[in-house]
Amino acid sequence: MVKSDLFFTEKYKTLEEKIKDFLNSQKDYLSSRTITSPRAVGDAVQSLLADNLEDLLGRYGVNYSISFARRAMADLAFYDDKEFYYVVDVKTHRLDTVFNMPNLTSVERLARFYEDDKNYFVILELAYSVQGANLSIDHVHFVPVEFFNWNCLTIGALGWGQLQIANSNTINIVNKNDRREWMIEFCDRLLEFYPKEIGKINERIEHFEKVKEYWTQKA
Q: pTM of whole model > 0.90?
């Protein structure tokens, strides 16, 4: 498998630092009201990055795009000069929140997307704190999803299944992780997940059979 030198050298770490420094250099793009809203912060940061990430990417930002449907995998996407394709999902996380379990993507969509070895589903995760009227970006992860250790991921019951970060306060990155091994574990997790969901559905069927029986016998 041919691998992207963006992620299998130290270049992505340099990019993480550039993104962090850029965002921390920006002032007054949030009001005192919006800075307390995680959703408003997420929208503002995503918009700021959409307008500037192409420049931060340098030679990697070929055919850069920020136009996607609301439920698409990507908030932005680009090719590099070797025709690797990167779709980027931007996630922001306020560090003083107790718990946060963001959705990443449909498991079926990811499986289809990764049928092409030159595709990368990238998570751009930005952890921040609020300092007065300003945002402080404390750390940045810009890595493909397969660099996320399975001990910090989970699968939610939505459609085919929804890949999620289990808790944004605990993220473990495995640098230069092997996609093949990660995808095999991905399948193993799903093969454990689906039978449990079948069991839950059978319990719900039994429950509503009893509910129906109650209403059928009611005068």
A: no
